[in-house]
Amino acid sequence: MFSGIAHCADCGSKLYYCTTRYFETRHDHFRCSASQKAVDPCTSHFIRAVVLEEMVLAHMRYVIGFVQRYEDSFRVSIEAERSTEIQKELSAKRKQIAQSQKRVDDLDVLFRKVYEDNASGKLTDERFMQLSRGYDLEQKTLRQMITMLEKEIDQQEQKTTQVEDFIAKCKRYSSLETLTPAILNDLVIKVFVEAPDKSTGKRRQGIHISYNLVGILPPLERFQPVVVERPNKEKAETA
Q: Which of 2, 117, 139, 163 could cysteine-pair with 123, CB 3.0–4.6 Å?
């Protein structure tokens, strides 16, 4: 069920599904595909398939329940956070475009200089051709990158947060009891599995779920509205 979805939280590699000689489902497990590398291998990030399924189902049910209970707060908070993230990405891309455009302009100046040096005999024809081809290739690459970044910026500016679609999905699975491949693929993009922690003497292992449309959610408790209890009017008057 999790093949292609389960990933290592440390190196990002996919987790391989492994069966055992016992031929019992409860022994099937996942391990990091990079743990078999000859050079700089990752740790196995071993997790039994049934445990992973239980953890993912529990988290999905928690998220679905939270969204249903605090829908308005969830909507406003996620939209605000994603808007901030998008603005940061747009700012970085605009900066990259400005830097690339400056380099394109600088290359124009350099090309004119080598042309003049070649015309005056300071630069051989062979060297001129070598430099001009290099400048031309770099300019072409930069212009392609600028076009690509401008297109990405345009798409991001027009893109909605898609929070409403995610909320609709949560409502669709309001009575989720059993996890199926169809439901998993509809709601989840990736599941990142951490390496087990045995520092306390007990084996503990965490996961991070990247949900479809909204990505990895921050702790939902921060979205929960704070209810301020007002003193009872009658008690206040008789006190």
A: 117
pLDDT 10s digits, 122-177: 889 999 899 999 999 999 999 999 999 888 887 766 555 578 889 999 999 999 99
Strand partners, 211: 188, 215
Nearest to 1 by CA among 34, 21, 20, 25: 25
Distance CA 15, CA 192 (A): 9
Task: Write phi, then psi, for 103 (nearest 5 degrees).
Answer: -65, -40
Cβ–Cβ under 8 Å, residues 62 and 41? no
CB 111 within 8 A of CB 138: no
Tokens of 11: 């190196």
Q: Which amino acid is at 150?
A: E
Phi, psi of 31 (to 5 degrees): -145, 155
